[in-house]
Structures are given as structure tokens and as C-alpha cells.
Amino acid sequence: MIKMQSMQAVLKQYFGFSSFRPYQKDVIDKIIEGNDSLIVMATGSGKSLCYQVPPLVVGKTGVVVSPLISLMQDQVMSLKQRGIRAEFMGSSQTDSTVQNRAESGQFDILYMTPEKACLIPASFWSKLLSVGICLFAVDEAHCISEWGHDFRVEYKKLDKLRGILVDVPFIALTATATEKVRTDIVNSLKMQNPYVTIGSFDRPNLFYGVKSFNRGQSFVHELVQEVSKFVRRDGSTIIYCTTIKDVEQVFKSLKELGIKVGTYHGQMDSKARAESHRLFIRDELDVMVATIAFGMGIDKPNIRQVIHYGCPKSLESYYQESGRCGRDGVASVCWLYYTRSDFAKSDFYVGELQTESQRRAVVESLMAAQQYCLLTTCRRKFLLGHFGEKVSADKCGTCDNCISSKRERDMSREAFLLMACIQSCGSKWGLNMPVDILRGSRAKKIIDPQYDKLPLHGLGKDYSSNWWKALGYQLISSGYLMETVNDIYRTVSVSPKGYQFLSSAGPDHQAPLILPVTSEMVDDEDNKHASGEVGEIKSLATVECEGFSEAEKQLYHLLLEERRKLARAIGTAPYAICGDQTIKKIALTRPSTKARLANIDGVNQHLVVAHGNNFLRIIQDLSQGLNLTLDGEATVQTAFTRKVYPVSNQPKKLTPAKFEAWKMWHEEGLSIRKIANFPGRPAPIKELTVHEYLMDAAQEGCEIDWIRLCDEVGLTRKVFSDIQCAISKVGSSEKLKPIKEELPEDISYGHIKTCLAMQKYGISLDVIPSNLHNAQKAGQLSNKETESSPCSTRTSPIEGPCEAETLVQNSVATLGENEETASVPLTWGQTVKLPKVHFEDALSKKRQKLSSPDDGNSIALKATESSLFNWLKNKDGVTLAEILEHFNGSEEKSVIDLLSCLEGDFLIYRKNNMYMII
Ligand SMILES: Nc1ncnc2c1ncn2[C@@H]1O[C@H](COP(=O)(O)OP(=O)(O)OP(=O)(O)O)[C@@H](O)[C@H]1O
Fold first, then answer.
1. Could you identify which of 68, 100, 253, 662 might form a hypothetical disulfide with 224, taking C-beta atoms 3.0 to 4.6 angstroms apart as the criterion?
2. How many Å apart are CA 292 and CA 908, to the nearest integer?
3. Side-chain half-sphere exposure of 880, counting CA atoms within 13 A
4. CA distance linking residue 595 with residue 705, whole number of Å
5. What share of the chain is helix, strand, coil (3-state, %, to 5)?
6. What domain of life does the UniProt record list for this protein's source (predicted)?
């Protein structure tokens, strides 16, 4: 329990977060207990926190091995902005004192390259061991395995440290690891009975889409126009190209449009690459055009779009690279553009590989990426399936294939021609040969084997070669054709299912064969240029600042600019100070005191201590200029009630009954109960069924007012967070039953499904008002009439100014003479020495000051700072209403003031409008 409180305190104090993400708490616990651990979790899921928190809890150094200097530098920069003592050791470290300071235990977190870890003398380790080392973490651990997609030889040598760091827990972390790679990691690092955590690979806030394109200048022109619009509206973009030539071409076109763009590739010298990287993460560049040399571990949270300009060489690298997108959890988009020629690059990727099995692995990886490109079903399901994760739903609702209603038509004649042609030329070629025959080619490769004499020669001239290849891949994915790999060569043959079709057909008669018209086919059939389709990016872009008033929007942008200036002045990245989402919350709540600022999710203690006064002054000045009041009631909910995609017509996959139910609820405002018992029905249906209809409608992109829905089904913040806890305990949201079993009886499947849907669409808990108008008792979804009411868009945050001494004063008061100091700016740009705050000391001293509980039976109980604190100590979180009920002898305003003071002192915190002890 004590450890838990410390973990929670560390989380808020240093990171500014009020809750752990799934798995984090358990993993941290296990590490603190001394277990070796293997952590396989999605990109951007927060793995780093698992090794960053333990050193702060136990007060010993955590050593982290990381493959890239730039990655380590970014991490160190961010940690320093959180008041954490972090450094890196590697060839580019210019500070010669780092090693001495490291071995005497002066760092909480110490990063090093694998080379450094292996080469540093044993005396370094023994000195560090004597002062205390709490973990040895290997980040991007898939680099250990030759089976991983990014093998590094030096990683293989880390095992020799096992004999030196005998009782130190070894932690391996990666976002992509097949079973084979996982076993390799555990064996290579000689892990002993490791605690293994494998989370979901899903990134629910990412939209996945694919398009075919041609590498012509006109396409590049269209693309850069769209990117420039996107950048202006939504934010940072990375464009990954497969060649340096493409990088240069796209870069040049963007530059000509006046976009702030940089490049990153292997032919740039290391200084130029580092500068480009630095400018991008510091928001000085809006677009980075790069080869895959740029990427692993980039944790700039506000990248809103990742475009692949050309098919990647494997789905593993696609997942890693697209995983740079939307790391703050906000909806973001990942587009992949491919051309047919990308699929023929096996020769290029196979390069120097010696063995057939290595070459085969590369070809198979490329084939999986090709399959992803040509898919007509849910891309997310395919991607997750590739990593061994089963998804029962056929549609995710947030990929291009799930949201667009694809055209289909009978292609039996064309399928007959292609399959017959493959059969006629002996099934020993890929798709190119039969397609060239059908298109009547007279190339040498056709004439020599006399394929021009085949009766099918020239019968397929009406379609382009790309059209035929698209059909070929449709037939492969629907099982009429089979593709086989021989060394690096692929051949296509007719499958038993295809034979069946051929044997019952002839040139003039075939059974109907309905297939989707893919985007490549559409281009051909409608004579439509691929470039015209780029425009779709726009309609799928994230909706920034939805629900903000005009003035709040302005304030948000001004605050972003102020954060950027501050970051520049202190030489850090804006996101290291705090994330965009935190700035949004500041723009909406406009705190007037440090206590209120500290209460915002994402605000850590270092920010409050070092920059709090400046932030408050700027918030005040800007708000005044925009006629906004301070301590505004957060219209936060509306800001995060993101619409999915507006739908005017019935989505194709939604049955009329479901669409009707959604229209009655959404457009006519009828309650779920009214819809279930609608007089027009032959017989009433269950309310739970109506609720499920609404969930299906949401899945199909219909707009849902989540506040109203939560209100109707009784999904309170408490219920929502109970469900989140249950999910994190179960470790997966794939099956509902185990989650339900972790929860009280009165929390229904309906609640769980709503909660999951909201998580999936990235809808924050903040949307749920603290006092639901109609909130039924949980679990009574089908029992009570819940007339719909106009949706409340306002919560009731705690009001009233805080007259408490400020956090800085408190903290300074607890410091001894010899406390360490940290350099922080006084105003934007100036720096002074501020005492380094030891939070635990402050906390314990504050606790000692408090007297024993005066929780009595008196009729009118008065709240004091200490009585309030002691009473809260025994509670698992209470609402303001409950506090007021208990301390019935105190005025609401004075209770709120006391709470603000305790919050300001970091003794209590507020989460989902519940007050808890840190
Ligand atoms: N509990 C939390 N609450 C809010 N944000 C969090 C939490 N934990 C981590 N984050 C944020 O999530 C982002 C991603 O975290 P992190 O860099 O650790 O991801 P990762 O799992 O290592 O991903 P990758 O494998 O792609 O590098 C970071 O910006 C981090 O600050």
C-alpha cells in the first residue's frame, strides 16, 4: 500500500499524470519486487514509464540501454524537464564528468548505448552496485534477435552483464516481437523466470488508410497541397519514403509551397541529421520527409499524420513507423501510398543476404506488406492478426475499408480469362506474364515460348496491366489463386477453388463472381486519376479544438506559441514542458492559482515550481485580452466528445433496424426506453438491444452524443473508472466475461461495451459529467424510463480561489541548507537557481504537521485542513458532495478552499471529480 501511494505520488509529481495506463502499475510493482520482466506492448503505450518510475520510488539508479543516441538525448531532455536526474553515456557525450557522477549514484536514470554498456570497465559497475542500481532495462529489445526486423550485433553481447549485475532485475521492452523473438530475448539476456506482459498491439486512435499512386510530379504536387492544408490545420506530419530520391523530390515540392519542412536520411552527415531531428521535435519544422533511418523511439506526442510514400518492406516496420503517430492518444491518421513496382523490390531488399531462409523471410515480409496494401477488408484486423492478436469484430470503423462503402461488381468473365491464362502458361510465373499475354504483348519473353499463339493472347486489352494485377490479388485473397515463394521468386497458380470455377465455366458462360472494385480498378474504370483521391485526407483529418469557443481556440494557439518560446529559451522541446492536450485543458480551465494549475492532468510539479508563475501570468493576460474569465468551468467535455465521421445516409453495413434506432435516438431525441417500446413495433425489444444498435451505429461512423448516452445508461465516472481498472486487471478487453466478473453485479455488459467503445474512439473520461442528469443506478439499463434531456456540456469543477500558501513557498520551506539546486527560468528566457524540491520530504513533513483525526459524531462537523486530510486518508476516493455531507458544519466555499490548499500541497489529488490522498 505504501509503495502504491509512492508510485501514485511519483506519477503525479514527476510526470503530471493522474492514472497509470493499463499494465504499467503491475509491471512497475514486479520490477520493484526485483523480477526480471519482458514487456511487449503497443507503440506509444507508455512502456518507458515502467522503467522510469521504479528508480524514483526506490531511490536507486535505473540503467537503460537504448539503440540510438538521438533517442537517448530526447528521453534525457524530457526527463530533465520533469525534475528527474537523467543523463546518457555514449560516444557523443561531451560532459566528461558524467561517468564519475553516474558511478556515485547521482542519476535517477542513466541511459547508455549497448556498446558503452559492454565496454565500460567492471569497476564502474561495482561502484554503481555499491551505491544502488535498481534495474537494467533494454529498450527496443527486439534488436537482440536475428529474427527481429532490426537486429543489432552489440545487443547480443549484453548477456555478459548478467554475471556482473547479479541481483539486478533485467527488463526487456519492445513493441514488436513474435513468439520466436520473445524467446530469443529471454534466452539472450539470460532472464530468470521473467514476468511477461503482452499487451494489445492496437492503437485505437490511429486511422489506417491505403491508396495506390504513381510517382509522377503531378501526384507529388497534389500530395504536397494536401499535406500543406493538413499541417496548417492539424499539426506535425512525417512522410516516410523508400528512397533518398523520393525524399528529395517530396521535400523540394513542400519547400516550394513554403512549408517548414526538413529531411532525414542516411546520406546526410550526422550533424545535419541531428539538427533536422532537433528542429522537428521542437516544433520548428512541421513536416519531416525521411527514410526509415528516422523513427525508432521518436516520442513527439503531437504527430498527427504519418504518410508512407511507397510500400514499406515489412508490416513490422510499418507498425513501428506509423506508431510515431498520435502518441498523446488524440485521433491521428496513417496513410500508405503504394505502386505496383514497390512489390517487386525483393531483389533490392534481399541485397547481400546469404542463405535462402534469410531471403525467404525478407520476401515473406514484403508479401505481408503487399497483402496489407491490397486488402479490401478491415486493415486493423489484418495488422493485429499479423502480430498474433485475434480480433472478433470484422470491422474496426477507423480504417478506409471499414468506412467507405466499396463498389462491387460481377467480374466472372475477367476472372475466367486470368485464371485460364495462368493455367495455360503452366502456373510457373508471377502475375506479370499472364497479364502481358492477356494484354497482347509481343515482347520477346512472350514470342519465344509462343505464348502469342494462345487463344487468350490479346483478349484483355481493355484493361490496364495494373487493373489485371489488382484483379489477380483479389483472386488470391478470395482463394481462387495461390501465390507461392521459391527463393525470392513468386509464382501464381490456380487453387482447387479456382479449378472448380474454371471447370464449370467456358469463354461465354461463367457463374457470377462478385468482387470489390479496388481503388486501382476504380482509377482505370472511371478514368480517374489517383491524385484526385488524395483529397480524402482532408475529410478524415482530426477535428482540432472541437467544442472550443472562438476565444478559447485563440487562447489555445497563443498558449502553444508561449510554450514554444519558453522551450526555445530553455533549450528543450515544447512537448517536454507539457503536452498539447494539457495546453488544451489549460486553455479551457484557465487556472488562476498554482493549485488549480497543478490539478490539470499532464502538469507535473517541476512545471508548477519552475514555470508556474509565468504560466499563470500569461494565462491571465491572454484571457483578459480575449475577454475570457479565469477559472472557467471546463467545457472540456465538448472538446473531447469527438465525432466519428458524419454520416448522412445509412451506412451500408448497418441494418435498417439499427439505422432507424440510431435516427430515433440521435435525430428525434427519443430515449432508449422509448425506442425499445416504440408503438410502431410489432413487439417491444430489449433496451439492451437498442443500446447495442447504437454501439453498432457508432462503429459505422454515426455520430453519438456520448454525454447523453452515458447519462442514459448510468455510466458514471466511477463506473467508467471501475471498468478501466477491471480491464487493466484482466489485461485485455478482448473478452467481456472476465471483465464483468471483476466488477460489481450492478455494472452491466452495456456499461462495459459503452466504456470500450468510448476508449476505442479516444473519447476521454472527461466527457462524463460528475452529476449525470438522468443517471440511473448502474445495471438498471432496462428498468427505468430515461427521458432524453438536452445534453449537458458542463461539469461542475470545484470553484473558489485558493488562499493557501503556494506550492513553491511550501516546498522551499521544507528544504535544508545544502539542497541541490536546479536551473530554471524566472520569466520566459531568464534563468535563476531554484532549490530542488524533494517531494517525499515535503509530503512527510506536511503529514507530521497534521493532527489526529477529529472525525467524530458531532452533529455539525467542521472541516479543517487536518480533519479533512485525515478523514480522506481512510477513504478510497470521495466526491465533493460526500465531503460536504460529512463536514456538515462547514460552508461549501470554505471546504473547497481547504481542498484546493491540500491539492496545492500535493497531499491530495482529484481524479474524475473524486478526491483522494496521494
Ligand atoms: N500513465 C500515463 N498517462 C498519460 N500519458 C502517459 C502515461 N504513460 C505514458 N504516457 C505518455 O505516452 C507517450 C508514449 O509513451 P512511451 O514513449 O513510453 O511509449 P512506448 O511504449 O515506449 O512506445 P514506442 O515503443 O513506440 O517507443 C509518452 O508521451 C508518455 O509521456
1. 253
2. 45
3. 21
4. 32
5. 45, 10, 40
6. Eukaryota
* Test site for ligand 1: of 10, 52, 281, 299, most ligand atoms within 8 A of the Cβ: 299
Going by their DSSP bridges, the two strands 236-241 and 303-309 should be labelled as parallel
Calculate Rg over the CA atoms of the chain. 30
Nearest atom in ligand 1 to the alpha carbon of residue 329 is 12
Atom of ligand 1 nearest to the CA of 301: 29
Cβ atoms of 918 and 9 within 8 Å: the answer is yes
Query: What does the alpha-carbon distance between residue 910 and residue 354 come to, in Å, rounded to a whole number?
Result: 60
| Nearest protein CA to atom 11 of ligand 1, as residue | 46
Distance 48 CA to ligand 1 centre (A): 6
pLDDT (tens digit per residue) in 650-681: 565 677 778 778 878 877 677 888 888 776 66
> Sheet harboring 332-338: ordered strands across?
206-212, 332-338, 303-309, 236-241, 287-290, 261-264
> Which residue's CA lies nearest to atom 14 of ligand 1?
44
Higher pLDDT, 871 or 23: 23
Protein residue with its CA nearest to atom 15 in ligand 1:
46
CA 526 vs CA 55, 273, 463, 850: distances in Å: 61, 43, 11, 77
Q: What single string gives the DSSP state of each residue in 188-221?
A: HTT-SS-EEEE-----TTEEEEEEE---SHHHHH
What are the tens digits of pLDDT across the range 706-723?
777 887 888 887 888 788
Minimum-distance ligand 1 atom for the alpha carbon of 602 = 4
Q: How far apart are alpha carbons 40 and 659 in whole angstroms?
A: 39
- Which amino acid, residue 786? T
As for ligand 1, residues whose beta carbon falls within 6 Å of it are 17, 20-21, 24, 41, 43-49, 175, 297, 299, 301, 323, 327
Query: Looking up cell 532490426, which residue turns up?
Result: 150
The string of pLDDT tens digits covering residues 784-835 is 333 333 222 222 222 233 322 223 233 322 223 233 333 322 222 222 232 3
- Give me ligand 1 centre to Cα 18, in Å: 14
Q: Which domains does the chain have, with CATH numbers?
A: 7-198 (3.40.50.300), 206-403 (3.40.50.300), 408-516 (1.10.10.10), 550-626 (1.10.150.80), 656-767 (no CATH), 865-917 (1.10.10.10)
**Residue range 901-909: average pLDDT?**
72
